[in-house]
Amino acid sequence: MERLEDDILISICHRIHNRHDLISFSEVSKQFLKATCIRRWYLEVSFTGLLNDILPASPNLRSIQCSKPLPNKHMKLLALSCPKLSNLGLDLEKNFEPKVDYESDFDDDGLCAVANACCHLESVSLSRRLHVGDVDLGRCVKVTDESLKAIGEATRLRSLNLQGCYLITDLGLKYFATGDLKNSLTFLFLDECVRISDAGCIYLGQNISLFDIANNCLKLRVLHLTGCEAITGEALHAFADHPTLSYLNLFSCRNISWEEVMSSAFTRLKYLGLSSRMNTPLPKASYKYLDFGDNRCRIYWG
Q1: What is the pTM of this model?
Q2: Residue, of 29 and 99, whose pLDDT is higher
Q3: Which InterPro entries match (predicted)?
Q4: CATH code linked to domain 144-302
Q5: In sequence order, what are the beta bridge partners of 247?
Q6: Beta bridge partners of 37
Q7: What is the pLDDT of the chain when averaged over all its residues?
Q8: What is the DSSP string of 214-271?
Q9: Three-state DSSP class for 160?
Q10: What per-residue confidence (pLDDT) applies to 131?
Q11: Cβ distance 210 to 203 under 8 Å?
């Protein structure tokens, strides 16, 4: 049988409106699969072996979800092929064999390629992508401050999940607070990023780090810092007058005292998560709310 031209297959594909029929069409062959990709805007990757065929044929892809290890070559192919990408969901699946799987995952080069090429990024999730299977850090995916330097130049990114990426330091937060990202970032998850300190919080808000984030990321609404034990009451004070922050989670941040909470005078905050094992004795009353002037804030203990 004579091979059909790609243009003919794409034309046929455009006339198929039933989703199940379209799936059946894509399963005929790799050529048919490529023809369906021109209409694809969402991709959930369960088998990475087909990405070499799918990505170059998917210029309209907006969202990709992948919980498997991805090598740099696939990240760079994604950057080259899918310029309209807005959602990058790369939370890594649990229970991989570290010596086999993590060494084949992407590093700074792959992540920076996507961040630099995909100017429409709005949401990035990298949970568990930095993982230590052994004590050998050389076998980990090295998502570091250099990765965040590239992400910091994103102009539309609203949500960023870096839970457990514990090679990130205050310098990485400075990139957030001084790059274009500061104008769009709304949700930031830094749970278990144990190298982040008050200095980093100031970048997100004042001078250089968490303080810079507090002063510069003026659209930030939600900030998770559970397990960032180097953070103290200075971070609370940095965010006290933030114009949009409504949710601040500080569970397991034990170096914050109740006196520092009381003196922070939050003007907008509606939810505050605190460690029940604070540096100083807890108040006698089990507070569920705190009034800071006209602002009432709900307190959760964890």
Answers
A1: 0.66
A2: 29
A3: FBXL15_LRR (IPR057207), Leu-rich_rpt (IPR001611), Leu-rich_rpt_Cys-con_subtyp (IPR006553), LRR_dom_sf (IPR032675)
A4: 3.80.10.10
A5: 222, 271
A6: none
A7: 77
A8: HHH-TT--EEE-TT-TT-BHHHHHHHTT-SS--EEE-TT-TB--HHHHHTS--SS--E
A9: strand
A10: 36
A11: yes
